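Page 37, top half.
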Amino acid sequence: MEKKHLKIFLLISFIVCYIIPVFSQTPSFLRCEYLINPIGIDCTSPRLTWMLNDSRPGALQKAYRLKIGTDSVAVLSGKGNVWDSGKVLSDKILVSYNGQPLIPFTRYYWCVETWDKGNAVYKSSFAYFETGMMKQNNWKGSWISDGNGNFGKGIKEKAAPYFRKEINISSPIVSARAYIAVAGLYELSVNGKRIGNRQLDPMFTRYDRRNLYATYDITDFLKNGENAVGVWLGNGWYNLQSTAVWYFDKAPWRNRPAFCMDIRITYKDGSVKTISTDNKWKTSLSPLVFNSIYTGEHYDARKIQNGWNKPEFDDSKWTNVLVRPAPSQNIVSEQIQPIRRVEKICPKSIRKIDEKTWLFDFGQNISGVTRLSVKGEKGTTFTLKHGEEMKDGRIDMSNLDAHYRPTDDTDPFGTDIYILGGGGEETFSPHFNYKGFQYVEVTCDRPFTLAADNLTAFFTHSDVPPVGKVMTSNPLINKIWEAANRSYLSNLIGIPTDCPHREKNGWTGDAHIAIETGLYNFDGITVYEKWMADHQDEQQPNGVLPAIIPTSGWGYHWANGLDWTSTIAIIPWNIYMFYGDSHLLKSCYENIKLYVDHVSDKYPDGLTDWGLGDWVPVKSKTPVEFTSSIYYYVDAKILSDAAKIFGKQEDSKKYSALAEKIKTALNKKYLNVETGVYGEGNQTELSFPLFWGLVPNELKLKVAGQLAKRVTADNNHLDVGLLGSESLLNALSDNGYADLAYTIASQKDYPSWGMWIENGATTLFEDWKSVSSTDGKIKSSLNHIMVGEIDAWFYKALGGIHPDFLQPGFKNILLRPNFITNLEHVKVQYRSPYGEITSQWEHKGKKVIYKVVIPPNSTASMTVPQGYRLIKAKVGGEKIDLESSSKDLYLLQSGHYIIELTRK
């Protein structure tokens, strides 16, 4: 080989053998507070996380080193002037900042170095986070409104207000940030351009106890000379003018929308100038003549003020703003995955009803908005009616407006109204509203021709990143998974909601039933952390929580028993299990304790009938005392385990004893030890104690056998309500009856999830009886997540992917797949905090080929399903003998496995 070619060969070999592997093993996915490069954070000790990029078998992190500083070049060169953790011998990938006190309005750069088990070191690229206000007294601005409200006596003005302020920039700038806190909703613009793509922002809170602010980088939107800042305010839940059964129109905080903003400009010479809201801002009413987050929006384009948010606009007819007190004294940074218009959807079909009315079918039930694009004569009025059901060829809203209590006909439900300005092509889409719908009926006040491209829909929800996927050989199962995900997202609008149309409330029971479905499919920690802060805002001094959160005050006396408001314990616990992060659990610890202590005081014998019970059952009814007492046990058990985690030994003993007391009392009253039957032996009564761990170990097989017998007697169909829908499939598959559980899950007739899909559903329904309203009797929602636990069951039972209580956050994965006889193949993927987990199997005659991916720095404990034995295994293409800790339990290190099993 020639010398020149030898050099090239050696260079290529060096790159392939050393450079590429180092690059591929570089730590990645750096996040602060579970967000990528967030700005405006308030916490003094933010959480930093990363993942390893190392596909080698047995890959793990032996040590890490964090470097943080204010100079990106210095950080990349290995110097952290704010914090250098030094080399820490630990496999942790979640570390809280522990350096010098963080300074407000400062960008910090950080990187991480990791050492593998061979002591090779790998360095990440840098990420950053930027602090915000940090303290309340750093705010400079005043809270301003347009003065049209009459605080405490109702709000008469319907139109949404505009606000504007001109700013002169005379020197080169380095950076500019806008910090905006709003009571209500807003859109921010600079020089006529909207800032960001957040929708329905900020998130809904108990406004008189906590308000949220957002931070925007507006550097590139400002120019030398005159600039204009515009703010458009909507009502949101702060000033709800629509009337419904939860009395948000009478909320104690209700007032005309208001906001506070600081624009902090850093100039090239190092000087800083803050431009704040004050009484010099100007305001005017906008063309948005009515807006309700609950019902719809009315827009009169004849009232458009072109250029209102641009420089040199003539605002001489605008009025001065009103300076108001802050809604609360607790203004905190909104560090959350925002609501966005995530998916654009074109009509599946369009049909002319008459000369003035056209029906659009978008092919799927969603939460969101539509966008109308038309051209016509000034004053032409379009009415857009949104619904999820059809009857006699027209939209039927009888299942949606059941809770609406209108005082007149000026605020039609689920309806937008747009009046043309007559200026050529016009576009309208709601700014401060969303709806749940599949169909839209567009009616014009005069004959008009519409085409498919005149109306577009946008699936709108909290933009939580997807982390899971389920694919099977059964198309019905795949469609149920898709429908459950669509329902989940449709009901994640800054808070978990029950439905995107008829209520839009943060129903607690719906949310904790669906928590695992949410976490297996989406990275939703930021939404849940925000919502648990809402719980803390709403909890009364005696520990009681309302049934809907946030609330106007409704829900403290009905529907808020143990089976619903156990969210305060169940959700923080699940966040801990899925993320290995105890921050939320620790934050809520005293709230859980206060809640459990209240129940203990009220029900000293260990049993409680406080709750709604197994909501919307098929036919069998379970005593409320039975299900509520089990949730009482669950809460006490979580509290005991949390106390142990946090070193509170006395609390751990106390609540462990309480949990045992509840368990003993329930089993004494409801369990027939001889027969293994609880209560009357219906599906919820038998599955609930199995699922939640109240059945004595020696009786589990007997109780599970009785459950299987009960299901068989029910023609292999479910007979449960909301609560039983969480426990039924899990109790069967966890106790040797996975095939039977799958039979229930894959049924196509009443009652079943598959029945809905077979009848054209693209989302899950509220009631097992809901198929269509052709009989005129259906009154329930067709987009609910509350019976969506089946989605999580796919991950747990088919994929067998479970978190490990002893090593949470999937540091160790409990792999318990079930090779369902009537399924040919299954592939389940989940991106854990350590990386992607894959559990994939396929039947090959009597054999099963099982492919598993365990991410770096984690392990798995694999249980071979009953009736199967392991033949051979490969990892990274090499044949290996798996380490076994006991019969049918194998220990897997990180890596890509192909495992062959056969029936015994």
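Page 37, bottom half:
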Amino acid sequence: MSAPLTGIRVLDLSRGPVGGVATMILADFGADVTKLEPPGGDPFVTLAAAPMWLRGKRRRELDLKSDAGVTDLHALVSDADVVVTSYRPGVAAHLGADADTLRALNPALVYCAITGFGPRGPYSGYKGYEGVVAALSGRMMSFEGQPERPGPAYAAVQVAGHTVAQAAVHGMIAALLLRRRTGQGDVVETSLLQGMIPYDLAGLYTQQLMRNFPDHFPADANLALNRQPTLQYQPVRTRDGGWIQLGNLLEHLFHAFLGAADLSEIYADPRFTNAPQLTLEDREALREIILTRMQERTLAEWMETFIADGNVAAEPFATPEAGLSHPQLVHNGDVVTAIHPTLGPVTQLGPLARLHATPGVAAPFVPGAAPAAGSERSAASGEPAPRYPLEGVTVLELATIIAAPLGCVLLADLGARVIKVETLEGDGYRTMGQGAGAIKTNTGKESICINLRTAAGQEIVRRLAARADILVHNYRSGTPERLGIGFDDLHQLNPRLVYVNAVGYGVDGPYARRPSTHPVAGAATGGALWQAGAGTPPDGPLTLDEVREAGRRLTRANEVNPDPNSASVYATAALLGLYARETQGIGQRVDSNMFIANAYANSDDFLSYAGKPPRPPVDPEIYGLSALYRLYETAEGWVFLACVTDREWDALLQATGDERLATDPAFATRAQRQAHDAMLAAVLISVFRARTAAAWEAELAAVDVACVQAARSTPGVFWDQDAHVRANGFVVEASHPRWGTLRRHGPVVSLRGLPPRMGGASVAGDSTDAILRELGYDAAEVAALHTAGVVRQATAEES
């Protein structure tokens, strides 16, 4: 068997790491990729991670501002399967590289357009730097309170770029699957702004629910900016000054932690009988006990204890460089070393998923000079065109909380039918907080509640699996086998099933049976420390109050992004398996995990080689990375400035008219500006205080410098109210069984030829009886299953 995308020929016209990672993934799984660059090359190849995302690609310069270059492109397109671009709207047409022009030459072409803000609306012409998108969409306001100052804080981890790289792959695979049915290509569209959609888990719904049902949804007091973490997610300091992130969300894991920490005696104290569900006063008392105990042993001693216990979710806070040697990532093959022709050994990310029958490999740095012969393109099947890209695909979800369920939402949005199997009580995430986040993770699904501890319940799942195309679960290793629904069991029943292990660490290996939750993956792969900023956590002796405050800041830094980071990778893994099945006729086991997913989210630094530039630090007050890529307070409000190129610097000088910037030799060249960064920041602080944020955005947009308001709204308010969102259809109306019509986020990626499937939310067990009837159970059998406590149908009150 060959890699899934063998025979697919890709022309990569994109610039930088977003399209670069997307086409790297295609190359890792067999596609033949040629990167077409402007004269002088892609300006972003100087980035530290460029050697990795350039792997597996031939590079060729092509001047699309010349007739000869356009002619060459059009000749190449005639035999291509996929073209990937990252132009701002309108630029591709000017260069003769737009979708309409290229698809007229090759109607079977899949054209993927990655933009900053989408094809239309007031921000469509803005430059798509990640920081600009994060600021404008309110993401930086979600970090307010992380530093000890008012206002937004820089969002360090490049989550939009990560999600969009994955979303582009989702869209391209969906379009290639569609082409096998219709013979026609399509236009795949995504944007960095859409890449922010998975990270607003509850904000959009919370805004509407507070407005429509104020008695049921009062303002959430738990959103205080200086709030302490939950005890389950407490960062703790060890005797040798190390820091460990705890992640024991579920109560049985929290109790396991207390046992491993030799703190079980706390249950004898009546204050802590119901731990971790405690009053504020008792919670703080227990926090002090935990923080004190954890400083009695070294980091290595505690980790040895937790790993041996096997039921404690905990990982040290680490950098990406340390993450490269994580025992589980190494065991999985998620980290590989290859020889670069000029850099020597490069330790880097491996393929993002392990497909056991059709594996990918980290493509070599120097592929052959000649492209692969021929193209995968095959005759259309003659089937009628579907309504949605993945119409006809059934996904069986056995997963809880956020990461894997949100990954299945991404598949549902592309048109797959998703059947969610829940316990009789339902997914525990439905009752966490005010429940708004669970609306998002359950949109577009049908739910069946089953007691999988019963033989009859396991038989229902087997019947579902016999009809499914994809199964996604997030059980710890060994659990599916104990339930009789492991890969070997179900593969015999349905050899075409794509069986996705969307797990914490891996299916086998040293940590495979350990629990994992989002903060431990965020801590171990480097994102949390980067977001924390220089000086956090502090070194040296600390008082308990200082430990508590450092833990608070680390918690705010290690926010919810690791779960959505994982969701997009799980969806990629499932689609790669589905494409392999459609082209090679086999189902297979597909393994992916939270740690490789979050390593990909930190791919800008998740590699190592001699002379690699260090990851730029975030300053202690979390303004940004440099004087020309950071937040500034204005006369009214805040802006985020991204002034990266010499051309942008010249335009900034023209717009500000500031003589100090124009005449000081310390700022005359890019190298001088970098050498005098603190001095430049001090000047710009005074410059930006002269006008309002709105005025700066308007004035600098007029000269094509990216500078946007950063404190207008939180993400929920942005998605709820912004005119640009409405202009692009990034929010659409859908139904909720209990709360009526609510606007939900639109798709992260779409195909121009087919609409997304924007389903409404489900409640636990809303489709139980209907699904049982579909499986062939008659009325008496369904009633017997209810009586025996095997299944549960949602009541009218729940709906």
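Margin note: The chain has 33 helices and 26 strands.
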